[in-house]
Amino acid sequence: MDHFALVDGELFAERVPLARIAEEVGTPVYVYSRATLERHADVFREGLAGVERKHLAFAVKSNPNLAVLKVLAGRGYGADVVSAGELDRALAAGIAAHDIVFSGVGKTETEMRHALAKGIGQFNIESEEEGRMLAAVAAAMGLTAQATLRINPDVDAGTHAKISTGKADNKFGVGLHVGPGIYQRLSQLPGISLRGVAVHIGSQLLSLDPLEAAFGKIGELVAHLREQGHTITHVDLGGGLGVPYQAATEPPSPADYGALVARVTRDWDAVIQFEPGRVIAGNAGVLLTRVIRIKPGIRDPFVVVDAAMNDLARPALYDAWHDFEAVRPNGTRMTANIVGPVCESGDTFAMGRDIDTVSDGDLAIFRTAGAYGATMASSYNSRGIVAEVLVDGDRYAVVANRISPAEIMAAETVPDWL
Ligand code: LLP
């Protein structure tokens, strides 16, 4: 459920007409709904009611906007971060350092030192080499880093290849067969305190089966590690729950997911950690755009909008589907190709799509753009960086200014020897 709906024939975000935002802020612009973010945060937590001891860390990579993070902090969420930049954002949004988990295969020494100095709650270590580096960095600071070892369970998440992370040939985590040995060796080191394991097999999962398979393997590993004398207090189950980009897609609900987790982890006797991203932020945002012009095509017309692949990269990268709707639909439909102005054919949002009829100058939205939208924007074709707005009831605020092409150019220097 979200709060982007027609009121008297016109799309609103909560109680603010999208046309007003377009008028005052310009397009393209991401629009987030606070009520939707909060609802999703609460529904996800309620789904996990059967999991006694838990920790929820919002995956900052899905939407790192400070205002969005502040909303989620207000709902009791910690953060899952993958860089010093994300860590600083989470802290700036008021998330306590001990509620932050640091994931990712390429943490640098500098990032480790920074995170330790801030008092971060946990590192999810992705290799023995990384664990050794972390132990050395922490020991040199006179600290002990709390950590889990990320396991690659070799399970096919059944999602797009580029967002699958749990197959043996993916770069993430360590294999199940080598996990216990690495765990044993790392736990001997000063500077690091291993307290459990982590797993994340992919994103936009539309079935619970691969999760059940992965969690089953993790449960067996936890038992095995305990038999070896290790104390396991935390298990991080990552994120990954899919969202309905199309009405016909029915991802498992947070309640179904929560029931699975409660059943599988019943005897684990550990704090179960979660890193949801898309399921919280996806449907809480839309990309508002204006039709520049309609250009005839061989079969269907091209609707050229002022948003492009540099603003919303998902269709170009993952052939992703985002529903397209007119802000003031006139009740008729057309079949069209929806494209942006960027000079490559990959800048295509949809081909031969049945959409609301739109004309030059009309406003429209791409739905389900709140996760992995603005954060993946670039300035390709020197188009500037898209603005972001947060709506709250009948008010809104610009929560990220548009960065103009001139501002980006100002960061460049031509050496005086040219
Ligand atoms: N935890 C870890 C360790 C992750 O790698 C990810 C996502 C998450 C949590 C959050 O997953 P979520 O709940 O959002 O599925 N740019 C791609 C998605 C990349 C996801 C990367 N990792 C897209 O636009 O579909």
TrEMBL record:
Catalytic reactions of this protein: meso-2,6-diaminopimelate + H(+) = L-lysine + CO2
Chain ranges of the Orn/DAP/Arg decarboxylase 2 C-terminal domain: 30-370
Pfam family, one: Orn_Arg_deC_N
Protein EC: 4.1.1.20
Catalytic residues (UniProt): C343
Domain of life: Bacteria
Binding positions (substrate): R278, R314, Y318, E344, Y372
Keyword field: Amino-acid biosynthesis, Decarboxylase, Lyase, Lysine biosynthesis, Pyridoxal phosphate
Modified-residue entries (N6-(pyridoxal phosphate)lysine), positions: K61
Binding site for pyridoxal 5'-phosphate: G240, E275, P276, G277, R278, Y372
A GO MF label: diaminopimelate decarboxylase activity
Annotated InterPro entries: Ala_racemase/Decarboxylase_C, DAP_deCOOHase_LysA, De-COase2_C, De-COase2_CS, De-COase2_N, De-COase2_pyr-phos_BS, Orn/DAP/Arg_de-COase, PLP-binding_barrel
Record domain Orn/DAP/Arg decarboxylase 2 N-terminal: where: 36-281
Pathway: Amino-acid biosynthesis; L-lysine biosynthesis via DAP pathway; L-lysine from DL-2,6-diaminopimelate: step 1/1
Cofactor(s) essential for the protein: pyridoxal 5'-phosphate
Purpose: Specifically catalyzes the decarboxylation of meso-diaminopimelate (meso-DAP) to L-lysine.
Quaternary structure annotation from Swiss-Prot or TrEMBL: Homodimer.
Protein name (database record): Diaminopimelate decarboxylase
Gene that encodes the chain: lysA
